[in-house]
Amino acid sequence: MRPSRLLLACTVALLTTAAVPGVSHAAGPDPGTVYISSITYGGTGCPNGTVGSSISTDRTTATLIFDVFVASTGSGVPATERRKNCQVNLNLHIPRSLAWLAAVKIDHRGYVQVPAGMTGWRGDTLHSPDLIVGKPEQTGIVGPTAKDYRVTDSYVQAPLSSTLCTSEAVHPDNINAAVRLDGGTGSGQITLDSLDIHVTTTNLLPCLN
Predict the structure, then answer these.
(1) Bridge partners for 140 per DSSP
(2) Domain limits, the chain
(3) Who contacts 91 (Cβ-Cβ below 8 Å, separation ≥6)?
(4) Are the CB atoms for 103 and 114 separated by under 8 Å?
(5) What is the spatial distance between Cα 29 and Cα 35, in angstroms, rounded to a whole number?
(6) What is the mean pLDDT of each run of 10 residues along the chain (209 residues)?
């Protein structure tokens, strides 16, 4: 029996967090940068107990590994199974500054198997109140095909107004990741196996005092 992705994720997490002699580890996030403060999630593709999650020591990368994020169709499969989604909620730490600019890169990995006439779609949207962000991203994979896929989406964020050097702040980022099947007949599926979310501070205008 093939072990679940969630079990594998937990095993990897235990191995990678073990102490290794002679290897130094970062002390933590840089308070002068934009970084991930916390993460929560929920949805039909990521119900409670089916997701392995981790945040890097410097808190610039979050990884989610999904065990049941599968859109499918076929004989006896309800139509509601053609689409699955997960709402990922990030809280970003924003340093005290006059203005800032950050890049958010989202790596999708999964598998698609669709017959002729059917298309497997994967995509995401990023929304954050009071921030300028990019347009939604999606990719269609046309059948017939059966393959692994990896797609990277990129967004740039900037505040709609100056933070005015008042204090550090926390900004919410809401990422809606989804997979779905359109058209065709017969059996098909598209999965989202993992998301890697990378946050990079690309520009920061420091306060004068």
Answers:
(1) 121
(2) 5-17+28-205
(3) 36, 37, 38, 39, 170, 171, 172, 173
(4) no
(5) 7
(6) 44 38 58 92 97 96 98 95 97 84 94 97 86 77 97 85 69 93 95 97 80
